[in-house]
Amino acid sequence: MSSYSNAPFFFSVCTVREGECPLRETCLRSRVFVETRMNTSDKVLNLCMVNHFNPQSDTCTQQCQMYCPDQKKRMAKGMVHLYDNVPQRLYSSLRSAVMCVFNNRTFYYESRKGKRLISEEEQRRIQLVFQRYGISEPPQFDSYVDDYDWSDYKY
């Protein structure tokens, strides 16, 4: 399964054809559309599309406001051993502070188990929590993967 198939359901895709846009080959919106359309085993492609007929969107030019670079980021996967080297007296309050990095408890637990990837921004915020509690060694995540941070993109 390609990384493109993990796009959120409401991620707007671009249906511009080859030769119509100078940014097509490096645009994530175009790549998601092309790859998911060609791979029928992936989930059904949604119908949220960039409107090329809107004169304010500036699509098909170098100034396209909907352009998303097709670049993966270093995402952390899992944090089961995050608190292994944390003193017992700090564990409870540190854990609560780390939970606040995520939008909700579900995201925290999914991220902890590795079912949800931890963005670079979330990793940075967890690092700040550790520093605020006086823990000098960086947080230890289970592993890292290169994938898209779908939270970076406006839909």
Mean pLDDT: 85
Listing every helix as H and every strand as E from the N terminus to the C terminus, the arrangement reads HEHHHE
Assign the structural class, choosing from mainly alpha, mainly beta, alpha/beta, alpha+beta, or little secondary structure: mainly alpha
Order of strands side by side in the largest beta sheet? 1-2
Largest sheet: 2 strands, antiparallel
Distance between the termini: 22 Å
**Annotation, overall tally of beta strands:** 2
Number of helices: 4
Shape: elongated
Relative helix content: 25-40%
Features:
two-stranded antiparallel ribbon; 155 residues; mainly alpha
How does this structure look, described?
The structure is a single chain. 29% of the residues lie in helices and 6% in strands. By secondary structure, it is mostly helical. A two-stranded antiparallel sheet has the order 1-2. It is elongated and about 60 Å long. 22% of the residues are buried. The mean pLDDT is 85.
